[in-house]
Write a structure and sequence with these properties.
37% of the residues lie in helices and 23% in strands. The protein contains seven helices and ten strands.
């Protein structure tokens, strides 16, 4: 009888399995959950925001220590109601607990890892975009042309379905690495060199 010795997977193997499982979940859930009907739209967007965080890699300099939480923040009038808090409750990103913050327009937002900018006003969008430029912050918005002009990920709604664009150049300038799996689901608007 042949006996095989069980070996525990190393960290790289575990991480690969978790990423693969996340990809499968994102692929399965995205088409079903992507309908945008009224308040459901923000439930869908909240779920997307959590999944974006799972498929983007932040540099070590983005965190003060190994115990630092992962900060998701909203600046401006929060359109999510309780949807974003519900989508993030009890979850982790890269082994870090998630903290949800809300910022005013004049706050220092550099401690965020994901920043949803809730505005259509070009002056506010430019001001926030400029204030976090060069920092490892995944900026997300829903105003028309957000990704090409102001941030990294821009939500769009087409035929009652939530879609998203990714500005790959902006992500690289922020020091963020976007998973090819996430890129395959998006419209890439930055130079993809």
């Amino acid at each position: 009888m042949l006996r095989m010795k069980w070996r525990y997977p190393n960290r790289a193997q575990v991480r690969l399995l978790l990423v693969a499982a996340g990809c499968v979940i994102l692929t399965i859930c995205t088409p079903v959950a992507a309908h945008a009907d009224g308040e459901k739209e923000y439930e869908v967007k909240a779920a997307f925001i959590f999944n974006f965080a799972k498929f983007v890699e932040w540099p070590a300099r983005a965190f003060n220590s190994s115990e630092s939480p992962f900060v998701v923040a909203v600046v401006g009038k929060d359109p999510f109601g309780g949807s974003l808090a519900a989508a993030l409750r009890g979850k982790e990103v890269a082994g870090r607990s998630i903290v949800l913050k809300r910022f005013n327009w004049d706050d220092d937002m550099k401690g965020a890892h994901v920043l949803f900018i809730a505005s259509e006003d070009p002056d506010r969008l430019s001001r926030v975009s400029d204030s976090v430029k060069g920092y490892p912050i995944l900026t997300i918005g829903e105003s028309r042309g957000f990704a090409p002009r102001y941030g990294i990920i821009g939500f769009t709604v087409e035929k009652k379905r939530v879609r998203f664009e990714i500005n790959l150049d902006a992500a690289r300038r922020a020091g963020l690495t976007v998973s090819s799996r996430l890129l395959s689901l998006a419209k890439v608007v930055g130079d993809a060199k």
